[in-house]
Amino acid sequence: MPHGSMKGDAMSKIWANSGDSHVMEPDDVWTSRLPAHLAERAPRAVKDERHETVYVDGQTVFRTLNAFAEAARAPGARDLSARLADLDAEGVVNQVLFPSMGLWTYRITDGELWRACASAYNSWMAEEVMSASDRLVGVAMLPLLSTEDAVAELQRAADLGFRAAMLATTPPEGRDYNLDVWDDLWAAAADANLALAFHVGTGADPRMFRGPGAVVINYVETFIPGQRTVAILTAAGVLDRHPGLKVFIAEGGASWVPALADRMDEGYRQHGAFASPKLSRLPSEMIFEQVYASFQHDRSAIPAFEAMEYPNVLWGDDYPHLEGTYGHTQETLRQLFGAVDPATAERVLVSNFDRLLGTTTRVPVTA
Amino acid sequence: MPHGSMKGDAMSKIWANSGDSHVMEPDDVWTSRLPAHLAERAPRAVKDERHETVYVDGQTVFRTLNAFAEAARAPGARDLSARLADLDAEGVVNQVLFPSMGLWTYRITDGELWRACASAYNSWMAEEVMSASDRLVGVAMLPLLSTEDAVAELQRAADLGFRAAMLATTPPEGRDYNLDVWDDLWAAAADANLALAFHVGTGADPRMFRGPGAVVINYVETFIPGQRTVAILTAAGVLDRHPGLKVFIAEGGASWVPALADRMDEGYRQHGAFASPKLSRLPSEMIFEQVYASFQHDRSAIPAFEAMEYPNVLWGDDYPHLEGTYGHTQETLRQLFGAVDPATAERVLVSNFDRLLGTTTRVPVTA
Fold first, then answer.
1. B16 CB-near residues (< 8 Å, 6+ apart)
2. Pairwise CA distance, residues A257 & A253, whole Å
3. At what angle do helices B214-221 and A224-235 cross, to 10 degrees?
4. Fewer Cβ neighbours under 10 Å: the N or C end of chain B?
5. Contact B321, B22 (CB under 8 A)
6. Partners of residue A259 in chain B, C-beta under 8 Å
7. What does pTM read for this prediction?
8. By CA distance, what is B258's nearest residue in A?
9. What distance in Å separates the CA atoms of residue B144 and residue B167, rounded to the nearest whole number?
10. Predicted ipTM?
């Protein structure tokens, strides 16, 4: 039985796969693998008394209060055996692992540096993390300034055993995802059967607000480019030309997907005479079949699956980040899934992860 | 009974209020009411052999194929008695009326011109349209470059009998809706009990894509600033400080609202220690109570109401525009509402309109 039951034993554990978790990279993940002239430009965090500042390639890409940076750091954030103990305690079987500091590489503007950072990270992830447990499913980072570079790294990642490769929700300037410059990457991903994973908040921020409410407004802003990415890949015919290609938007929730699908069907039908390319399937059909999306706490996610018939809802713990469920995972899962149809829970918590990644989950954990 | 029944008589009409319809302004709506130096800068459309081009204040703000501009223009687009006959035929009781050409006034960058255009439009709407039938519920346009101007026109509109006033989903540069420069307008709207209506596609376009899929991608882009507007008004405490204030996002669908509400609750809860202002209610509570949203065709709209418990779903015909239901209104309503709980249909098709605008709908039409 893939999930706990509330009947009889209110405390039985609900086991879940997490489609959205993060490693906290060791400080030397890049410096130990890159030549000095690149290592000094790799992502690094510097703390003063009040702030943590992240630098990449000479740019300041992020600055936050130390209190914010340090909030809710789980014991296993940097230590793999502690992480696996956390997983057992929280009831998480497998985790899709995105980077943390590495998220900022998607702001790099130098091709050589980005290539080197992505490659070093992927080697580290395969050698040091994925080798430790098959419960840890890494996502390969791709350099995005050149499609040739992205294809080469994607193929290397496939050879290293990765099942998903990561792009930015906002691509580099001038390289919108509807342009044919990307065609070789879509074909390579489809050929290698690697899912394309887009994590919210990656690439250049489209907008940043200041003033009243800005913290929450900007949190909302991060989920907009994920919607845009799905719209672009669908309308430009990428999903249509590669029906086996799977796209995953991580950490942005899942219930926006049916809304977007309806919006696109309306746009395609009502403006269809003026649309190019023509599509062989309705946008909603492609999206419901090929696009996956993960949520943490959203009450609307299960109704998106059950009432709006969007099948590819994934749950994620976002461990060990502040937006995630660490410390309250079982409480969250019980609130969300305690009373739902077991088939729904099985699909959202377990098998959609396997569908996306081509894995096979054994529950309960026996490793 | 507020809507038709499929039992016994498959052709019985489903009557609905439309929260999102448009007038097509007569060519002289501005020129006949403005002094010459302003009249020549008011919105105007110029046709050549292939294209229709819209100019406002010396800017070219829109250019489209004549075929696109002329598609699906209903007989009553410009003629009020023909419009009322269209409403009867389509099964629409009342319409909220937004402008068409006037949508482009939300790009004006000159305060005097904007003030004059909004005022002339509102006078025309009250004198020439709303006076013809209480089934035609105009939305007043507001000039947005100065809050003082906006407040003055809102108060004039209230005196003229308007029940809603229109803002742009994207405000003028430097005047984001979270800033306190707007406070007097929120207070004036709450005092006058006028709903704030935001129609998709108004204000400066945040992004425009070119190339494959652009027609549909840009259709999706138009619904993003509506999401942003709700996020901003909620996070900045505007809804919290004015619990009677109602906000309406027109023509962007309705099922994105629960997704946004969940996103905001997560952001406020998880980042709440760093958020300012503090809110007395959860974002989702304020949004579900004070924010209304209208859809035309979306299959996900009724599940957003029934399964996600978002109460303020409104339907709209978008008459006479191409994105709307003219010519297939009854077919669309039967597909969407033919099998749903009558209480759902009554709320979405009839009484939410009255809740938003403070009107009382008599169905069937007896006027």
1. B3, B91, B92, B93, B315, B317, B329, B333, B349, B350
2. 9
3. 160
4. C
5. yes
6. 253, 255-256, 259, 298, 300, 304
7. 0.95
8. A300
9. 7
10. 0.94
Rounded alpha-carbon distances, angstroms, from residue A310 to A267, A289, A324, A327, A344: 19, 9, 23, 29, 11
Enumerate residues 68 to 107 of chain A having a beta carbon within 8 A of any beta carbon in chain B. 68, 71
CA dihedral of B288, B293, B299, B300, whole degrees rounded to 10? -30
The CA distance from B139 to B163, in Å, is 7
pLDDT band (50, 70, 90) for residue B224: very high
Residue B82 predicted with pLDDT over 80: yes
Look at residue A136 and give its three-state secondary structure.
Answer: strand
Residues of A in contact with B328 (CB under 8 A): none
pLDDT band for position B365 (cuts 50, 70, 90): low
pLDDT tens across A271-326, in order?
877 889 999 999 999 999 999 999 999 999 999 999 999 999 999 999 998 778 99
Using an 8 Å Cβ cutoff, are A50 and A66 in contact?
A: yes
For B241-246, which contacts have Cβ atoms below 8 Å and span 24 or more sequence positions? Answer: B241/B186, B242/B186, B242/B187, B242/B189, B242/B190, B243/B286, B243/B289, B243/B290, B244/B190, B244/B193, B245/B186, B245/B189, B245/B190, B245/B196, B245/B290, B246/B195, B246/B196, B246/B290, B246/B291, B246/B292, B246/B356
Candidates B207, B235, B306; nearest CB to A217: B235
The DSSP string of B219-272 is HHHTTHHHHHHHHHHHHTTHHHH-TT--EEEESS-STHHHHHHHHHHHHHHHSG
* Count of residues in chain B: 367
Inspect the interface and report whether the beta carbons of A298 and B266 lie closer than 8 Å.
yes
CB atoms B306 and A307 under 8 Å: yes
Report the distance separating Cα A126 and Cα A121, nearest Å. Answer: 9
Rg (CA), chain A: 20
